[in-house]
Amino acid sequence: YDGIWARASLDYLPKKDLQKLLPNIAHALKKNAPFYMTHVADCPEATALGMHGVNSDELTHMLEKNSLMLQKSSVSLSNFTLPSGQKVRIPVTTIFAVKVDPKENAF
Known about the structure:
27% helix, 3 helices, 107 residues, alpha+beta, single chain
């Protein structure tokens, strides 16, 4: 693919499933193709919404392990409503990475 956009979709995967999916994403991308994703922080509020958080360091490591070189990341607070009706703000990491040739880039 020329690029993959995964905004607010991978949040619902447990970490072990995300670890299994990232190699497939990397394999599907052409060299230097962009990969954009968001992922929620690991917190009780995200869990209450059925989301599975991964901390930023773990996520960066998972990307690099799969030849997805982090270009930029940022964290922002996003508004969510829990099933109870309570409104909460949850940290969301926005990731922009590109597919690299693992032979050219040692991590």
